[in-house]
From TrEMBL:
Xref: CDD domains: ABC_6TM_TmrB_like
GO molecular function: ABC-type oligopeptide transporter activity; ATP binding; ATP hydrolysis activity
Protein location: Cell membrane
The name this protein goes by in its record: ATP-binding cassette domain-containing protein
PANTHER family on file: ATP-BINDING CASSETTE SUB-FAMILY B MEMBER 10, MITOCHONDRIAL, ATP-DEPENDENT PERMEASE MDL1, MITOCHONDRIAL
Residue ranges of domain ABC transporter in the record: 363-595
Highest rank taxon of the organism: Bacteria
Spans traversing the lipid bilayer: 37-57, 77-99, 157-177, 183-200, 263-283, 295-321
Record's bilayer topology term: Multi-pass membrane protein
Residue ranges of domain ABC transmembrane type-1 in the record: 41-324
Protein keywords: ATP-binding, Cell membrane, Membrane, Nucleotide-binding, Transmembrane, Transmembrane helix, Transport
């Protein structure tokens, strides 16, 4: 029988997959641009109008200077020209507000849509994905990377279009004044183009390293805060602080290397513009002396060259934003390209059979191996889980939790190894299967919200009466009543106000409230005292209505209530039967003897 393994195909879940092409990145953004094309068109129309209005002002200045030089200008003419300049300035101010609102607003919309898509995509991923991608890396994608893409698609796009339009129009006006003078002023431009190309390539590599360093820093901070009680118990505050400082220094060094490139781009662009201005002052002055051009034309030419210096400087800034944006967008694209292995190949899932009669889950020669390990975690497993209480026990590391994860479709399995309601799980939607399963783990997840909201997490529409009923079944209702605010009590981050047993019973109440056909309790009663555990189990059994329950436990007083018990060892079933039958089994009988002696 072929083993089912966590190993993925080449390029999946790895950070070494080939970089996405620019066309692939454009396909990622194009739907958002297409949806908001009218907003962008209006914004860029306002931006281009501002550029052309700014280009008209030097023409008015030329007219005024030529009139003053020829001593033909009158006060009324100068006043009229001034009023025109003032009117243009007012229109420019209004239009600048509009293009900022429309284009920068669009970049925020784009950021939100990408963030929503990223978040929803991550929610659909399976366990393999989260074993390979750290929370810090995912947070870096949702934070720094998205902010960089937003900046590139906002001010970066504005600067690029503004620089293109302004430079083209300014060059046109400059050529109209003097072709020779324009060519002389543009002599330093090739230097800027070459420098920008070289520096932009290095910027891409260095910024990618910055984002990776940020991921490491974020993940370290997260794990430290999550484990703060353990760190304090081992007095590791100074040690963790030193490690965090080391990661911070590495992050700063990476940022400084990026800053070096950024620091070179702007001065180079400015230097090129100033050299062009120096050439203009000399050769343009000579043309004025020779009466080839008027003083007004020279003043207008200087104004246009100043307008051209901004696009020259913007080339460096736009190149910086573009390279950073492409780097971040590639990281986001790589993440969005990941697919959950459990749903790979399921193009048209079959409808879920609605019948709950008979076997719920069947394992047929189920074999599974974790990635990076040689020994199968489960090996040739055959078992049936039907209505009633099914017990599962075995030594630590025997494969009990692995089986629960496979039943929950957290990992992929080979065809035919898992059958749900008579249908191969690889032909069903994982969402449909999970909608039929309620799960209680040994380490329950508790949210920093009210107790009622925690219990109703799986059924937000549940009434308070239903929430209290589930809590009573899980034998935690009296504990909740003991809190000053009852079910409205906020239990703090990770449930710090609750004991281990209370957290487990809270998680159990959450699962019971969902009323799903299959309930899996993976050692989810281990932190509860024996008396309370018996009460909880009796409540569950009394409220069963054709439900299937898989109970993983090491306690004989719990397992003896099971209709059928499976014993796992090294991923294999080494014993099965009822409580009385298994008393003759060496492992089970030793469990009974030890627990009786402890009692």
């Amino acid at each position: 029988m072929t083993k089912s393994s966590c190993n993925t195909s080449a390029g999946e879940y790895t950070n070494s997959s080939p970089e996405a092409s620019l066309s692939a990145l454009l396909r990622l953004l194009s739907p958002i641009f297409t949806t908001h094309w009218s907003r962008l068109a209006a914004g860029f129309l306002a931006l281009i109008t501002v550029d052309f209005l700014q280009l008209i002002i030097p023409r008015f200045i030329k007219t005024a200077v030529d009139g003053l030089t020829a001593q033909s200008a009158t006060s009324s003419q100068l006043l009229t020209l001034s009023m025109f300049v003032l009117l243009i300035a007012g229109i420019v101010a209004v239009l600048r507000f509009f293009w900022r609102y429309l284009i920068i607003g669009f970049s925020r919309i784009l950021e939100k849509k990408l963030r929503d898509r990223l978040f929803n995509h991550i929610l659909r991923m399976d366990q393999q994905f989260f074993e390979r991608w750290t929370i810090g890396d995912l947070m870096a994608h949702a934070g720094n990377d998205l902010a960089t893409v937003q900046m590139a698609c906002g001010m970066g796009l504005v600067a690029a279009v503004d620089a293109l339009v302004m430079s083209a129009a300014a060059l046109g006006f400059m050529l109209a004044i003097s072709v020779k003078l324009t060519l002389i002023a543009l002599l330093p431009m090739p230097v800027l183009i070459v420098c920008t190309r070289i520096l932009s390539g290095r910027l891409h590599q260095r910024f990618n390293l910055v984002q990776e360093q940020f991921s490491l820093l974020t993940e370290f901070a997260r794990t430290t805060l999550v484990s703060i009680r353990l760190i304090k118990a081992y007095t590791l505050e100074n040690f963790q602080g030193t490690r965090f400082q080391s990661l911070g220094e590495a992050y700063i060094r990476s940022n400084l290397r990026v800053a070096i490139i950024q620091g070179l781009l702007f001065p180079v662009a400015t230097l090129v513009g100033n050299v062009g201005m120096l050439l203009l002052l000399y050769y343009g002055g000579m043309l004025v002396i020779e009466d080839t051009i008027t003083i007004g034309s020279f003043v207008a030419f200087v104004s246009y060259l100043y307008m051209l210096i901004w696009p020259m400087m913007a080339i460096g800034w736009v190149a910086n934003l573009t390279q950073r944006g492409i780097t971040s967008l590639r990281r986001i694209h790589r993440l969005l390209e990941q697919l959950p292995a459990v749903s790979r190949g399921i193009t048209q899932p079959l409808p879920l059979p609605q019948t709950t009669i008979g076997t719920t889950y069947s394992c047929r020669h189920l074999t599974f191996t974790y990635a990076g390990t040689a020994r199968p975690a489960l090996n040739e497993l055959n078992m049936e889980i039907g209505p009633g209480l099914t017990g599962l026990t075995g030594r630590t590391g025997s494969g009990k939790s692995t089986l629960c994860k496979l039943l929950l479709r957290m990992y992929p399995v080979e065809d035919g190894m898992l059958v749900f309601r008579g249908v191969d799980v690889n032909r069903l939607s994982q969402a449909d299967i999970r909608d039929c399963i309620a799960y209680v783990s040994q380490e329950p997840v508790v949210f920093a919200t009210t107790i009622a909201a925690n219990i109703a997490f799986g059924r937000p529409e549940a009434t308070m009466a239903e929430i209290k009923e589930a809590a009573a079944t899980a034998a935690i209702d009296m504990d909740i009543q003991g809190f000053s605010e009852g079910y409205a009590t906020v239990i703090g981050e990770r449930g710090v106000k609750l004991s281990g047993g209370q957290r487990q019973r809270l998680a159990l109440a959450r699962a019971l409230l969902c009323k799903r056909p299959l309930l899996i309790i993976d050692d989810g009663l281990s932190a509860i005292d024996v008396e309370t555990e018996q009460l909880v189990l009796e409540n569950i059994l009394n409220n069963m209505d054709g439900q299937s329950i898989l109970l993983v436990s090491h306690r004989v007083n719990v397992l003896r209530h099971a209709d059928h018990i499976f014993i796992l060892d090294n991923g294999r079933i080494v014993g099965q039967g009822g409580h009385q039958e298994l008393l003759a089994h060496p492992f089970y009988s030793s469990m009974v003897a030890k627990q009786r002696s402890h009692a």
